[in-house]
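## Example pair
The file below holds two records. Each record gives the amino-acid sequence first, followed by its structure token line.
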Amino acid sequence: MTRGTGVGSFPGSTQHDYDEALAIVLGELAADEHGLAFVPEVPGRGAGAGLTGRTLGLVTELDADLQPEGWRLTGTSGAAPVDQRRARSLLAQDLDALEERAAGHAGPFKTQVAGPWTLAATVERPRGDKVLADHSARRDLAQALALAVAEHLADLRRRLPDATELILQVDEPALPTVLAGGVPTASGFGKHRTVHPPEASEALAWVLDAATAAGATPWVHSCAPGVPIGLLRGAGARGVMLDLDLLDADGHDAAAEALEAGDTVVAGIVPTTGALPSDRALIERVLRWLDLLGLDPELVGTSLAVSPTCGLAGATPAAARQALKLSRAVARSVSG
């Protein structure tokens, strides 16, 4: 059974906008078995609501504050800095709204966090430059994230006790750049050293294994070129979320291998900007792609899902709703 879902982010800048995003997600994706609902994100409300700030709000082992250049680890322990507390409070408020609106939800449910390598590439060390520059610091951050993931999933399970499955989506938009040695240093004149695949896999595995141990299914999402699908699956990802337009020949082959092995592939095909195509055009796109891979839609249906190509923060609320509606409609039709 193919399902339609979303990546996570929605447009808006207020709590009312979050409530509207939640209503859209539940209305479009919680109605039947072809939808996969999720915890929406509205990053336009401020740094604490963005991907990095929202995830740091979950992390209790490390303190972080907000600087003009972005989030920074403080290197201290004790009471969390005010910015981190605000991020934590905002997420708790969002989850309270979810618990109230999704009471009795008896299907699968997805939540999203930033991955260890995207955090390492965006968060600064106490002494400056990115966490990525320090082997020990990036190790500590990944392990703290693994603990936070376990706590977050336990909290979500308590809030949604009837959910049949929890899915953790680990967002890693920066991972291909990290592996390629393309993340700029603080000066802007150099690049951080390449992180080799064994270390990248190990840090991801800590987080993905924590999700599995908490009873959730771990997925990894990246709407960037060069997604290392084999590395993600080797680290424990049981699902990968991809923008089909950004896959090269090796990426298509790796996606086919994942589907044949029974892992989930979420095909990002619904545009997030510009005019939206018809559901018929999108259905034909998915079927052509499966035919290119030599896969029978009936045999991979349970492993295939459909989504927008990336987040919807830059869309209008109406377009965001339509993008989710299209994802679910395509999923239903591909399922036959």
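Second record, same layout:
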Amino acid sequence: MRRSLRVRGFPALATSYAINELGDNLGVVALAILVLDRTDSALAVTALFVAGKFLTAFAAPALTAGLDRRRISRVLPALYILEAGAFVGLAALAGDAFWLPAVLAFAFADGLLALTARGLSRGAIAAVLTPHDALREGNALINVVFAVMSAAGPVLAGFIVFQWSAATALWADAASFAIVALLLALSARSLPEPEVDDTRESWRSRVRDGLDYVRGHPIAGRLIAGEAIAILFFTLIIPIEVVYAKETLDSTSLGFGVLIASWGGGILLGSALFARSRSRSLSSLVLLSTAAIGVGYAVLAGAPTLLVACVGSVIGGTGNGVQWVAVMTALQEAVEDQYQARVAGLLESAAAAVPGIGYIVGGALTSAVSPRLAYAVSAVGVGIVVLLWSRRPIVPDRAPERAPVRSS
């Protein structure tokens, strides 16, 4: 992974992506605590997640398509400055001026900016690393950092809110995004730029062009559609894990924490395995990691004790630590340069939108029968995705011709 850090432009992009993830998790937790404290309403917290996570997934691909042919050295810093501004607004609302509709509006704006920045960053990362044959190493590094930031964000938010206030956490988030914008502005000369700064084409045309490209591509469409379905089954069990641990396994709150920690430990293990798997084909990594998640869910569905359930969590978490980055890398290797940001943004948006459906299905299955049924359905669904993907190669035998990329 160290080799990727020597590629000009990648350290700044990786840092910005990592802080985006940290800030996203920190902000979500701080906002959830703020909204619950001020409204004492679970429905209001649900509305926050719908506005900041679900609705943004449908708007982000259009914004990404409208920006991906503009100069990345200008667009990314601008997005992070706007994101910092959104958190300044949220921090101001955390005081006596709290008003739920305004909080939801700022949360939507922040979620939209964050998803767009991720898509554009993924496109820029592919542009700087691919000519150096370092895409897998760079993605492996980002995957490890992503896992760490996903865990650190909620912990940091909880600590800041406990020690000071939700407003303090939101001000800290605003400062972090301002720092990232400054970092990218100072690194502008090392960032990749499109050959033509074409801003005349309408964003509707660019969205249609991107969707037509994905539909007609022999790899991209299958990967994005398959991953969306897989994520539906991956996330189906998230709302019912606590019920599973405490009622089905008759465990305690500590047991629930150990079960979740087991999955997190598996993610870290999987991230390390991907980093050391350069010699393995991406097709096998995608299939094996997806299958591992399904096996983990199958073990959880039939686990008689917490110990067995933790073993299943480690298996599933290990697959989880490989699966997303393997799919993203396969997609980046298959797609032409001019479509990188739009296609990556579409995958990121699918990953943000689909869990909402999974939560509903998982809750319904648990209410109707038991958490074990939800885990079993997840295992079967993931197995079906693996079978469908295995029918044809996920990664093309030969990478497509790539348009030249210049660095300004």
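Notes on the second record: Confidence is low (pLDDT under 50) at residues 397-408. Residues 206-395 form a domain with the Growth Hormone; Chain: A; fold (CATH 1.20.1250.20).
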